[in-house]
Every structure is written in structure tokens, then in C-alpha cells.
Design a protein that fits this description.
The complex is a heterodimer of chains A (374) and B (300). Chain A is of the alpha/beta class and 374 residues long. Chain A is built from 14 helices and 13 strands. Classes of the chains: A alpha/beta (374), B mainly alpha (300).
């Protein structure tokens, strides 16, 4: 039946139910058949490993080596905070590779969901800066649980034109400044917020598990809450809010400042006088990784020179491949908040200490309640 | 009668005979696939939720001894009561706004549109043609400090500094919810208005009722089932909202859905999350009952 005829029939009210059903059926056939249409031959997604990572790393730029070897980028699944990712993995989600931070390693490894990584399968491994992974708790019989991929700082990103320091030094107090009530932002994940609040409260990290520390950290976070406009882990949300002047200062990672500066927004990554929170994050291999060969290629690609170079240039996160630093001058690195020797930055700030599952449980539930206002 | 008799009629199968005799079972058999799906996809998870809500947490593991600890914690901690109250307020306000706003539209389409009615109805559901997430995101562009409303007001010289309560606030959540669910509210109201027998209105006019009295005495009461249906259709899903407060709400507009998500996500306390979900279901059921009772009362 002609389409125009059908429309006329419909208008005249003469289209029979049967004819109508038939044309609906015909319409339905099309979307069903589309996947069967010829398309360029390529390997199926199930041939590639899945990388469970923070939103923003799921782009081809990190995979030049991988694509050269396997023709396509691997599969991605993304999360907003490490706690969220951990719980998804624990409830049965299998991704070949996950992306926690190194202080999470003892907790994550204790679940039996991961396997130590055979670094002899990684061609770029000799160039990886050893200080970034060579700590006792990351090693199992000499093999690392986590292969480092990024390092950097959690600090404050602020609008230099809208936030007036009034001669004061940059400090964590900036996120507690009542003058900017309703214009401040915070990261929503406890892995960042809780530790930064510990710095603000003056709690040494080796004391963070005590009841006294819980009381003091909760107190500063409760004090801060009325001033906060948004708690978010979604960097797109906080970046747009910062660009619009919706918020004038927020807890942030390196990438926010780099991308906003590139857009011409006057922002600065603060060097708080108390020190920033510093971290090393990387990849852990699932114990039942279904595509383990592909997963090793993903790992190798992520520690390559090109991935490290892109990481530093586009996001401002520290790369892990020593050779990538040759392409940067000291000034360029300093402008990104990085250094030729990562330890210069990591030790100048406060580096997290692994905690027990019970601590983590208590911290997250306290923090979630504080965010809700209780 | 012997089986060899060629003249004997073909006897229908036992099932056919049974169904022929029992009309009720015909219906049940037709319903069976849907009922099975319901049982598998609704009752089973519901039972799981109920069971899980009585469990408790032991470290990273779950202790399966039944108990009411999760419910007791909800009574003790004022957070839950306050959050449920806030959720009720947000859902009721946005539902009320929506129903009041869309009633005239439905009325117009039912009574004053004579041609292309279907086209009108399709146009009214147009916002639903884009992804929900995109719609919520575009509200950010409208409500933000550099957004459409603030720049227009500033351009007109009506305000000096942007209105910050427009975004990341309860206002924002209410506005976005009202917009997002409008089509759900329009359709039932439209249907109930469309069904009203026009000769009753003529009779009322003949007996001396003016347009206003006619509306309040005939049109409005007869459209109430549609209004109640719209209310429930919109109230129930908004009570469980999670993504809207997350995207346009501030710290003070988080709803129960966000806490449930946090419990199943970062807090990793599934039993407590299940208990909260059960409490929400009961709250919604109670609220639904209240609507139905109100409907009965008004119609009397």
C-alpha cells in the first residue's frame, strides 16, 4: 500500500485496523533488519578487554599502541567515584581492568577479585617510574597488584577574577570561606573529600582511623556544608559551573584547570599552604579477566610514552613513563602542577594511607549523611 | 457409539472442551503469559527486597539473620523522616503545579480543537521525543547564572545580580519535574474531558446555567477521575526520582532516591537501602490511597 494512500485513508478515517497493523509491522521490520545490513568488517567488541575507568579516560588518545596492535580501541565502562566502582565490581560486574588508586590496593586485593600483574608481559614496563608502584602493600611476591597510570593532586580550582584572596595565602580555608557561601563546590567521593577535610582539620593521616579524627573531620565537613552549592564527582558539571561563575572555587583534580584554561576561563589550581592531597592511580587486573591478552595490551598501551604525553598535555595528570618527560621543559611541568621527579610533588603534599574495610564503611556512611545534611 | 463410526463428529480436544465450558478460564489462560512475567519480574524482586531489608551488614558481608534493625535505625535517625518529608513535598508540589498547568491545555484540546486532534496530542508529547537526560541537562542552560532566564532579566534591568535560587535548588527540581512529566498528566485529563457527554452541558445551558456554573457543576466533577489518574501517574514516579535532583538539585534538594542510590552504591549497605525502598513503597501506597479516598469524597 502506498504511503500517501495510507495517509489519505487515515485522514478520511477509513484505514482499517488490519491495514494499520500491517503498516506498523512493516515499520517495525526496518529497525530490526538494520543490524543485518552490510557494514565494514571489524572485530567484534567481545574480542577486546573492558576497562572500567573514571569518566574522561574513555577516549582513543590513550590507545595509539593498542590500536596499532589490534586495530580498534578496547571497551569502556565508566564510574564517578572509586567507592561506586568497588561496589559494582563486588556485586559481580566483571571488567578485565579497573582503575582505583594505589591506597585502595590492600582493600581491593583482599576481596580476591584481582590478580597480581605479570609485568614481564609489558614491553613498556622498564620505563615506568618505580617510585610510583614500588611500595610494600602493592606487591605480592614481587608482582604489583596495581600498574600506575596517573598521579597528581586533589586541590582547589578557583576563578582568579571572582575569588579574591585578599592578600591571604592559598589554603584549604578557601573552601570554608563564608564570604563565598553558596558559591563553593566539593568533590562528592569520600576518597577525596574526607582526606582533604582531614588536612583542613589538621588531622595527621596516620591518625585518621581514630574516633577523635572522625569527630574532627565530620565537624569541619558539617561546618562547610551550608556554604556548598554542589557536591559532584562529575567534572563536566563542576567545570561548566566554574566557567559560568555559578561556583567560584571547588575541590578539583588537575584536569579541570587544564581544560578550563584551554577554554580561556581564568582559573588557577591552588597550592594550599597546608599541602594538597596527592595520589597515584592505576590499573588492577580482574582475577577472572575474560580477555586477558587484550587486557595486557591495554595495560601496555596505557604506560606507553604517547599515553603519558597525552595525559600530561591534555589533562595535566602526571604520566608514568619516564621517557615522556623528555618532551616537556621544567616550566611546562611546573605550570601543570607536575615535576620531573614525581616524588617532588607527591611528598610535598599529603599522600593517603591504606585503611581497613571497616574504616572505609564508616567513613562513607558518615560522609553520605553529612552531604544530605545530617 | 463406536470409534469406527465414520459419521461421528470430530470430538474437540479436552482443553478446547474445558475452555468452552468455563469462560473464566479462557481469560486466565490469555492472561497467563503476562502474569508469569509479572511474577518473575515484579513479585520475585519485591520478595527479595523485603527479605533483604531484614538482613544486616557485617563488614563487607551480609548477615542473613532476619531482624528489624534497619527499620529501627530509620526511626531513630531523624535523617530518614526529614528526607521522606522533603521528597513528599517536592513530589506533591510539582505534581500539583503540573496538573493545574495542564488542565486548561487538556480542556482546550478536548472542547475547542475540532480538526487535527491527533496532531495536537502528538505535539503535546513532543518533549518526550528527546532523551530524559538531555531535557534535564538543557534546563541547566535555561536556569543557570548565565542562563536564558537570568540573562533576560538582567538585560531588561529587572535584577542586578543573577538569581542563584533558580539552579541547584528545590525550585529547579520542582520546575524540571513539572516539565518532564507534563505529558503524563495531560493524557488522562484529556481522555476524561473528551468522554463527557456534550448534551449534558447543553441541558445545563437550557436550564439557565452560565459557563462558569456549567464548568463547576458538570465538567469539573466528571473530569476528576482523569485528574486523579494524572496525579497518581505523576506522583508515583516523581517520589522515586534520583537523576533530576542529582543534576539540577543542590545539597538541600536531595531526595530519598538519592539516598537509596548511595546505599546501594558508595555506602554499600544494601540491607538498609532495601529497607528504605520498602518504606518508600508503603509511603507511596498510603499517599495513593489518600488520593483515591479524596476522589470518592469529591464525587459524592
Amino acid at each position: 500500500m502506498d504511503v500517501v494512500d495510507q495517509i489519505h485513508a487515515l485522514r478520511a478515517g477509513k484505514l482499517s485496523r488490519r491495514a494499520f497493523t500491517r503498516s506498523l509491522f512493516a515499520l517495525g521490520i526496518v529497525p530490526v533488519m538494520v543490524p543485518l545490513l552490510p557494514r565494514p568488517a571489524r572485530s567484534a567488541p567481545e574480542d577486546h578487554a573492558t576497562w572500567f575507568t573514571w569518566g574522561g579516560f574513555d577516549i582513543p588518545d590513550f590507545f595509539q599502541e593498542y590500536v596499532a596492535r589490534r586495530g580498534e580501541v578496547p571497551n569502556f565502562a565508566t564510574f564517578g567515584s572509586a567507592e561506586e566502582a568497588f561496589n559494582r565490581l563486588r556485586s559481580g560486574f566483571v571488567a578485565d581492568l579497573a582503575h582505583p588508586c594505589i591506597t585502595d590496593v590492600p582493600r581491593w586485593a583482599s576481596t580476591g577479585l584481582f590478580q597480581p600483574i605479570d609485568v614481564s608481559r609489558l614491553s613498556n614496563w622498564p620505563d615506568v617510574i618505580p617510585e610510583l608502584w614500588n611500595v610494600d602493600y602493592n606487591l605480592s611476591e614481587g608482582r604489583p597488584w596495581l600498574v600506575p597510570f596517573t598521579w597528581g593532586q586533589t586541590s582547589i580550582a578557583y576563578r582568579t577574577d571572582l575569588y579574591d584572596l585578599e592578600g591571604a595565602e592559598e589554603s584549604w580555608d578557601m573552601l570554608w570561606n563564608t564570604r563565598y557561601s553558596g558559591q563553593l563546590g566539593m568533590l562528592a567521593g569520600g576518597g577525596d573529600a574526607w582526606w582533604c577535610a582531614a588536612i583542613k582539620a589538621g588531622v595527621p593521616f596516620d591518625q585518621i582511623h581514630t574516633d577523635d579524627a572522625f569527630a574532627r573531620i565530620s565537624a569541619v565537613l558539617r561546618e562547610q556544608r551550608p556554604l556548598i552549592r554542589m557536591y559532584t564527582d562529575d567534572t563536566t558539571s563542576s567545570d561548566t559551573a566554574l566557567a559560568a561563575g555559578e561556583i567560584v572555587a571547588t575541590m578539583a583534580w588537575n584536569s579541570s584547570v587544564v581544560s578550563l584554561t584551554a577554554q580561556g576561563v581564568p582559573v588557577k589550581f591552588a597550592k594550599p599552604r597546608e599541602g594538597a592531597l596527592t595520589y597515584v592511580c592505576g590499573l588492577m587486573l580482574h582475577a577472572q579477566a575474560p580477555r586477558i591478552d587484550s587486557a595486557y595490551d591495554v595495560l601496555d598501551s596505557l604506560i606507553s610514552v604517547s599515553a603519558a604525553d597525552f595525559n600530561m598535555r591534555a589533562y595535566g595528570y602526571g604520566g608514568v613513563n619516564r621517557k615522556a618527560f623528555d618532551q616537556f621543559t621544567d616550566e611546562e611541568l611546573a605550570a601543570l602542577g607536575l615535576a620531573r621527579n614525581p616524588m617532588d610533588v607527591l611528598q610535598a603534599g599529603h599522600f593517603g594511607i591504606p585503611q581497613t574495610p571497616e574504616w572505609d564503611q564508616r567513613m562513607t556512611s558518615t560522609w553520605e549523611q553529612i552531604k544530605l545534611g545530617f | 457409539m463406536s470409534a469406527a463410526d465414520p459419521a461421528a463428529p470430530v470430538r474437540p480436544g479436552a482443553l478446547t472442551r474445558f475452555l468452552h465450558r468455563h469462560e473464566g478460564w479462557r481469560g486466565h489462560l490469555l492472561l497467563a503469559p503476562a502474569l508469569l512475567l509479572m511474577a518473575a519480574a515484579i513479585l520475585f524482586p519485591l520478595g527479595m527486597t523485603l527479605a533483604m531489608s531484614t538482613w544486616s551488614l557485617a563488614g563487607y558481608d551480609i548477615d542473613r539473620t532476619p531482624g528489624l534493625g534497619n527499620y529501627a535505625a530509620m526511626v531513630e535517625n531523624p535523617m530518614f523522616g526529614a528526607l521522606i518529608l522533603r521528597t513528599l513535598t517536592i513530589a506533591l508540589t510539582s505534581t500539583l503545579f503540573t496538573v493545574i498547568l495542564v488542565y486548561p491545555v487538556a480542556y482546550y484540546v478536548a472542547f475547542h480543537v475540532t480538526r487535527h486532534k491527533a496532531l495536537w496530542l502528538i505535539l503535546l508529547t513532543l518533549p518526550f521525543w528527546t532523551s530524559y537526560l538531555l531535557r534535564v541537562f538543557s534546563w541547566r542552560v535555561v536556569l543557570g547564572q548565565e542562563g536564558v532566564i537570568n540573562s533576560a532579566l538582567m538585560g531588561l534591568g529587572l535584577i542586578d545580580s543573577p538569581l542563584s535560587f533558580l539552579l541547584y535548588s528545590q525550585t529547579a527540581v520542582t520546575i524540571v519535574l513539572a516539565h518532564s512529566w507534563a505529558a503524563f498528566a495531560i493524557l488522562p485529563i484529556y481522555v476524561s474531558l473528551e468522554k463527557i457527554n456534550r448534551s449534558w452541558l447543553e441541558a445545563a445551558a437550557d436550564l439557565g446555567d452560565g459557563p462558569v456554573r456549567r464548568f463547576w457543576r458538570i465538567t469539573f466533577p466528571l473530569s476528576l477521575p482523569g485528574v486523579v489518574a494524572a496525579f497518581i501517574l505523576m506522583f508515583v514516579p516523581t517520589m522515586g526520582e534520583y537523576i533530576t535532583p542529582l543534576m539540577v538539585g543542590g545539597p538541600d534538594s536531595m531526595m530519598v532516591g538519592n539516598l537509596v542510590q548511595a546505599m546501594f552504591g558508595p555506602m554499600n549497605n544494601w540491607p538498609a537501602g532495601a529497607a528504605l525502598a520498602v518504606v518508600m513503597m508503603v509511603t507511596i501506597a498510603l499517599a495513593g490511597l489518600v488520593f483515591l479516598l479524596l476522589n470518592r469524597l469529591v464525587q459524592r
